[in-house]
Amino acid sequence: MTRFVELPAAPVNASQVPHLTSIHSQRGRGPYGSSHYRGNCGGYLIRDLISYFQPKNVLDLMSGSGTCRDVCRELRIPCRSMDIKRGQDAACASSYADLGRFDFVWAHPPYWRMIRYNSDDRCLSSAPTLEAFLDRMQTVLRLSKGVLSTRGKIAILIGGYSDQGRYQPLPQLLVERAIREGLWPACTEIIRFQHGNTSSRRTYQSSFIPGLHDTCLVFQADQQRKDSTP
Ligand SMILES: C[S@@+](CC[C@H](N)C(=O)[O-])C[C@H]1O[C@@H](n2cnc3c(N)ncnc32)[C@H](O)[C@@H]1O
């Protein structure tokens, strides 16, 4: 059942993408990537973020079916991609050798083990514990921070979910890991409504509060922390 939700009015400002606010609710996925790739997102949020931050180049750390690559192709922005399914581990320093610097890093990781992508131990969805998943994501954050240009941003799309009866607040836990790595939010978190989610079409006997969104976190190097380093 579709219900209409009135969104709060956004203040008028000088943004080149005025419809980009802390709530992203666009139906459809656009002609980007594949809807058949499990757990994939659409391309509109990526397009809006790139249009807003205007990067000269993009690095996509977990490309899957190439949604970010397709957005970049449309916007005519050079994009480098990696994915563990092609043997490129975003948590390994050698994957970043000779890549150069990037204005925008996009990461759409597995939401821990909500979907198992493959049996490769290096795949983030293979992490045996929450702690191991967060440790690997922290390494990804450290390594991608190392290839950021001075105005560079790292955008991560991730959601919380219930794993064996225990809710896993992955976005919140990731913010804490990012801060440990000297990153700081570059703007508000963006709540992305998950229109067309497979689980939304199912019926469950149990009672719970359904999650209908995931969260995009945008980080940049924490200038204040750098300045305060003796
Ligand atoms: C949620 S999917 C991303 C889908 C993507 N947005 C698309 O356009 O199809 C997560 C991806 O992370 C990849 N992945 C998991 N662990 C990884 C790692 N350590 N390094 C690089 N990619 C990884 C998986 O192979 C999978 O393709």
How would you describe the overall organization of this protein?
- It comes from Caulifigura coniformis.
- This is DNA methylase.
- With 230 residues, the chain is an alpha/beta fold.
- The chain has a single domain, classed as 3-Layer(aba) Sandwich (Rossmann fold).
- The protein has 5 helices and 10 strands.
- The strands form 2 sheets. Strands 1, 2, 3, 4, 5, 8, 9 and 10 form an 8-stranded mixed sheet that branches. The protein has a two-stranded antiparallel sheet with strand order 6-7.
- Helix 2 (67-75) links the parallel strand 2 and strand 3.
- The model has no long low-confidence stretch (mean pLDDT 94).
- The structure holds S-adenosylmethionine.
- S-adenosylmethionine (SAM) binds at residues 33, 37, 39-41, 61-62, 64-67, 82-85, 88-91, 108-110, 117, 122-125.
